[in-house]
Specification:
- The chain is α/β, with parallel strands linked by helices.
- The protein has a single domain (about 25-240), classed as ATP synthase, F1 complex, gamma subunit (Pyruvate Kinase, Chain: A, domain 1), CATH 3.40.1380.
- It is built from 5 helices and 5 strands, in the order αβαβαβαββα.
- It has a 5-stranded mixed beta sheet, with helices on both faces.
- Helix 1 (about 5-60) packs antiparallel against helix 5 (about 205-280) and helix 4 packs across helix 5 (about 205-280).
- The protein starts with a helix and ends with a helix.
Length: about 280
Amino acid sequence: MALSLKQIKNRINGIQDVNKITHAMEMISLAKLKPSQNQLLPQSNYFLKMEELLRSISVNTKGIIDPLFQKKEEVKKIILCLVTSDTGLCASYNDNIIRFAEEFMGRSGKKCSLVAVGRRGLSYFKSRQVKICRDYTDLHGKYSAQTAEEIFNTLVNAFLSGEADEVYIAYTYFGSALRHKLVIEKLLELDLKPEKKEDFIFEPGQEVILKELIPAYVFNKIKLVLLNAFTCEHSVRAIAMGQATENAKGLLEDLTLLRNKVRQAGITREILEVISSAEVLLK
């Protein structure tokens, strides 16, 4: 059915309003992306150095005696920490990591509980009767040291108390603005393959260093995971909103052309009516 001029104008006004919203959201996401990237790179380098140090110490130690390194004899229960976003409009960002986590839980064959970071993952698995040990929402892609500390305490306490025999973490790794990777890694128990043995002089002793280093290592791993996930979220949302803005511009061009055609057709029709009326009067 052909659209009237009024209907076309209403559609143009509606699309213009949507265009303003998507463009504003694109700008907001880009503004959040830069600071998140600026945090991610130093944290990534810092964590790699910390991991290198821990590996070097472990190879010079006759077995690290620490509860976080203790492998359970039989793995029956696992906890998966899933990082998603609190809000949508970020294309397939949430769908991909949720599906990836769901497949992992199905393959594990173990009793699996969830620690949900982000409202989207929480809502999805709560409706599927998955046990939610703890949830952290309303972060909106902004890193918080306090939240990272709470997640650290939750996961470590669950492992040490025997609530979980293994702890995994699922998130989206940020490679670049256009390259993201779905990742599920074992967080606990810690399992670091030692590097080539070197001679070190430790001051204070290795045990004292490890006592401070191991918890710091786990905490910084969680921080790195959150920064990766949040940076991906902002990147994907900026791209999605940018594409939506471009699509809106294309629709506006088409509707503007259609409006002009309908308007011209109306003018032509009115002219013909005037000419026809004049011809009737002249007869």
